[in-house]
Amino acid sequence: MARSRDLRPGYSRRAQYGIFTGYVIFAVGVVVGLVALGLSFFDPGAFGFLRGAASEVAAPVGEASSAARRSGGGIIAAITVFFETGRQNLELSREVAGARANAVTARATADENRRLKALLHIVDPAEPPIAAARLIGSTAASARRYAVIDVGSARGVRAGQPVRGAAGLIGRVVETSPDTARVLLVSDAANVVPVRRAGDGLPGFVQGSANGRIDIRLLTMGNNPLHAGDVFVTSGSGGIYPPGVPVAVVAAPRRDGAEGRLAADPGATDYVIVLPVFKADAVAAMAASVKAAGPPPKDDN
Amino acid sequence: MAIPPRLARTSLATGSDATPRRPINRAPLPWLAAGLPWASIMVMSMVTFSPVIASAPVMPPLAFMTLLGWRMLRPSLLPIWAGLPLGAWDDLYSGQPFGSAIVLWSAAMLAMDVIDERFLWRGFHQDWLAATVLLSGYLLLASAIAGLAAHYLLPLTIGPQWLMTIIVFPVVNRLVALLDRVRLLPLMRL
After folding, report:
1. Chain A: residue nearest B101 by CA?
2. For the domain that residue A131 is a member of, what is the CATH number?
3. What is the mean pLDDT for each group of 10 consecutive residues in chain A (301 residues)?
4. Considering the domain boundaries, does residue A2 fall inside one?
5. How far is A23 from chain B (nearest CA, A)?
6. A-B interface: how many C-beta pairs under 8 angstroms?
7. Domain with A239 in it
């Protein structure tokens, strides 16, 4: 249908000014947008407080839908279980009896372990996690890969802390608000994770490629020793991620490095835990020394 | 009334636009008639808090599509500067660098003005074609901006998302038409 020509409202001064003001606000809007865009290029955290407030507002929605995601998978399982209850009951009671015996053995082993450690003066390096959280949202329409979790600075979550799920590394916290935090996923192109092969410690790093797959690059040159199915875990270098967390599985070896799958798919993960920065002092010292050294010298050649 | 005359003409339907069997002592609620388009676009921006945790850009830009839908259905309902507030809201949730939706949505509103000027008589297919052009440009530029912000050349991963977006657009259009009927329900007793 044809549009009514309401851009030429005749002799009404008021209507003419209204249309003109609309275009003025439009121009101001474009300028504001460009300035904001420029600011967020130079300082990506510039609007973090706004984003934090916004995800605080939407967090209840995300929590409800996170529960829906979990129960959606559970309904079918619940129905099948209903028909198998009797057999399952028998199996479980048998299992419990077995497990009880194992638990006693394990307790004895743990006890022995503790005594031996005390003997050798080994300090347990494992630190307790900072918080357990639920993944409540992700940027599904953008090419950047962020997720939102439902704990924030009120529970001690700070930018830079690694986040892992049961199956492996999820990412690291980049922005926090009191009750939510924004996580840069491993699959984002800006997230580089130092890794080593689980079997032999072959060093490399993992970088996201924004399409759900990730690139695995090796630090060593020469012929490519990777095979499909190789598991890569964090190496601990860089000081952010604690060593030994699974990150990626090789899907298809390439000439240099490989294309990998994530060890922990954020879509299949309900609960995650936020870990303390592995070597916080070292990371802080490194950041300070980078700042003290100033910008890198320009290339002369 | 604070409603400017330009808005008032189209926000309350008259004549053939109005619901056919409307009692003469009923009218649409003014705040619903004026606010539902804005509210629907803002809610669509918050779809990132849906149950899907995506590991790749797969979801069509629903908020932008809803904006286009309203713009095509009721050309003068949303003012030309609507891209500023609505884009800012979308930037808070989309994960794009702040400002990208403000600029791109404003540009789209201007482009729709030009399209209205050039192609006066448009049917469903022409509208879909115009939306295809605008949505393709939007997806390309948005992923380019995201790539710039990541300081890393992102491979073009928007293929499936692009296809999905183009196919889903008429559905969003129907949804907007449905909302338009809700918007004009005669709920207020005069």
Report:
1. A33
2. 2.40.10.340
3. 60 82 90 88 78 79 68 61 78 86 82 71 63 81 82 87 86 88 87 86 83 81 80 85 86 84 79 84 78 64 50
4. no
5. 7
6. 217
7. 45-83+125-291
